[in-house]
Design a protein that fits this description.
Blueprint (H helix, E strand, L loop, with lengths): L10 H20 L14 H18 L5 H14 L11
Length: 92
Amino acid sequence: MLKTKYKINTMPIVIMGIMVLVVLFIVQTAHKPVSYRCPNDYATGGEYTEGVAKWISEEMKLKPDMTMDNLIQERHRLFDKYHCEESKWLME
C-alpha cells in the first residue's frame, strides 16, 4: 500500500459540494417565472383564472409599459404557439 505524504480529509470537500448544490437549487427556485399554460391544462375554472392573473402579473413586471391590447395579443400568440384548444372554462 502506498503511503502519501499528505492525508486528505474528504468530508469537508463533500460538505462544501453539498452546500454549493443547495445554494444553486435555492437560487434556481427562488424566482421561477410564471410560464404560459393552455387553458385546458388547468384542473378547474378557478385555477385557470388564478393562473391567468399570475401570468398577467408576471408579464407586467417584465414589461411594465405593456398595454392591455399588447397583453391580449401576447396571450393569443402563445395560444397559437402551443396549439391550445378552445377553453372549456369559458363555457362554465
